[in-house]
UniProtKB/TrEMBL annotation:
<keyword id="KW-0552">Olfaction</keyword>
<keyword id="KW-0297">G-protein coupled receptor</keyword>
<dbReference type="InterPro" id="IPR000276">
    <property type="entry name" value="GPCR_Rhodpsn"/>
</dbReference>
<feature type="transmembrane region" description="Helical">
    <location>
        <begin position="95"/>
        <end position="124"/>
    </location>
</feature>
<dbReference type="GO" id="GO:0004984">
    <property type="term" value="F:olfactory receptor activity"/>
</dbReference>
<feature type="transmembrane region" description="Helical">
    <location>
        <begin position="145"/>
        <end position="168"/>
    </location>
</feature>
<dbReference type="Pfam" id="PF13853">
    <property type="entry name" value="7tm_4"/>
</dbReference>
<keyword id="KW-0675">Receptor</keyword>
<protein>
    <recommendedName>
        <fullName>Olfactory receptor</fullName>
    </recommendedName>
</protein>
<feature type="transmembrane region" description="Helical">
    <location>
        <begin position="63"/>
        <end position="80"/>
    </location>
</feature>
<feature type="transmembrane region" description="Helical">
    <location>
        <begin position="211"/>
        <end position="232"/>
    </location>
</feature>
<dbReference type="GO" id="GO:0004930">
    <property type="term" value="F:G protein-coupled receptor activity"/>
</dbReference>
<keyword id="KW-1133">Transmembrane helix</keyword>
<keyword id="KW-0716">Sensory transduction</keyword>
<comment type="similarity">
    <text>Belongs to the G-protein coupled receptor 1 family.</text>
</comment>
<keyword id="KW-0325">Glycoprotein</keyword>
<keyword id="KW-0807">Transducer</keyword>
């Protein structure tokens, strides 16, 4: 595979070296065990939500269909960086090819962009359900929900094509060492900037990252501000509690994801220490997908009931391991 600008790469014709998490040899098994456990729990937790939404007909509503799609997105997200990070812990060379590096960079950023768009759609769904309840059934149909999900995925994988193309054309003259556990935007820009000034690429990458983050965040916060105003007008205390519980879960996920993402990407490559950048990237790419199933399931009675029913009947595990193979199409009361 030949990438644009690969002829300018003179640090190594084979690619980059990802330092990952430097540690003594005896510490590596502990790191591997911790990250492996986190990875497995993330797959199981999000996979259980996907199976619950698919199997339980009571969850075949736009809110839960979006939640199931979001859980599937989280599975894809952790698979874009964690397997390579685990393999890198015991690797002696810690090398990644040029094509592999930019493929990981593109997939990681595209999935992160898709997550921003997904969170915006989920906020819009809650806005319609609470602030426009009479119009909600006609506006948020299963068909429109599917169109929104497809738009999120398409937009996510199109948004960062230009930054990835520009970064791939940069002259990497060496050294080819990246002090990170994945091919991230900041370290790649810093590596290229050591060869020659790249203000245009830094500006475009920063603008596109900032535009995406702030536009989606403002949309989400604006939607929930209107939701909060509507909820406070609800006369029933039980109705207010249910609305706050649902929206509180979404806002907790938004806070976890955007809080760490903004630290890293609003100003890529500008004055952030390598250790801090690794921590923030680890937080939103590994820990947040791990916490999301807990946040959504613990605060949502319908989801808890569906997961209990699924575990009791065995279709959560069978659906996850067999690709939701044959079996009963749904759960019954």
């Amino acid at each position: 595979m030949t990438l644009p600008g690969s002829g300018n790469f003179s640090g190594s014709s084979n690619g980059f070296i990802l330092l990952g998490f430097p540690s003594r040899r005896e510490i590596r098994p502990l790191l591997f065990s911790l990250f492996s456990a986190s990875y497995a729990l993330t797959l199981l937790g999000n996979g259980a939500i996907v199976c619950a939404v698919r199997r339980d007909h009571r969850l075949h509503t736009p809110m839960y269909l979006l939640l199931g799609g979001f859980a599937f997105l989280e599975i894809c997200y952790v698979n874009s960086d964690v397997p390579n990070m685990l393999a890198n812990i015991f690797s002696e060379t810690k090398a990644i090819s040029l094509a592999g590096c930019f493929l990981q960079f593109y997939c990681f950023f595209s999935l992160g962009t898709t997550e921003c768009l997904f969170l915006s759609v989920m906020a819009f769904d809650r806005f319609l359900a609470i602030c426009r309840p009479l119009r909600y059934p006609s506006v948020m149909t299963k068909r429109s929900c599917a169109h929104l999900v497809i738009s999120c995925w398409a937009g996510g994988f199109l948004w960062f094509l230009l930054p990835v193309y520009l970064v791939a054309r940069l002259p990497f003259c060496g050294p080819n060492v990246i002090d990170h556990f994945l091919c991230d935007l900041g370290p790649l820009l810093a590596l290229a900037a050591a060869c020659s000034p790249i203000p245009g690429t830094v500006l475009i990458c920063g603008l596109m990252s900032s535009l995406l983050i702030f536009a989606t965040l403002l949309f989400i916060l604006g939607s929930y501000a209107l939701v909060l105003r509507a909820v406070l007008r609800v006369p029933s205390a039980a109705g207010r509690r249910k609305a706050f519980s649902t929206c509180g879960s979404h806002l907790a996920v938004v806070a976890l994801f955007y809080g760490s993402v903004m630290v890293t990407y609003v100003s890529p490559g500008a004055g952030q220490t390598e250790g801090m950048e690794k921590f923030t990237t680890l937080f939103y790419s590994v820990l947040t997908p791990l916490c999301n199933p807990l946040i959504y399931s613990l605060r949502n009675q319908e989801m808890k009931n569906a997961l209990r029913a699924g575990l009791g009947r065995g279709w959560v595990l069978s659906g996850w391991t067999l690709g939701w193979g044959t079996g009963r199409a749904g759960s019954q009361k």
